[in-house]
Fold this protein.
Amino acid sequence: MAEENKAKKESKKDAKKKRDWGAWFREMRSELKKVVWPNRETVLKNTGTVLLCSLVVGAFIWVFDFASSGVVQIILTLFRS
């Protein structure tokens, strides 16, 4: 008897899991239908903006690194003597 009840409970859990997965996929599909996908022009514009900003930030980092390396070299040569 106890084994039968245990088997029934497990089968109910399995059925509930299957329903939960199905509900999750249905909800995901309905949410994806609500998304406003960008067109090609918008994607290209945003990609260009990201690339330009990355280059500008990279240039600032390079300049700061170059300047700070020079300052460190000057300080080291002053205290070496």
Observations:
- The chain has a mean pLDDT of 87.
- The first helix runs from residue 2 to 34.
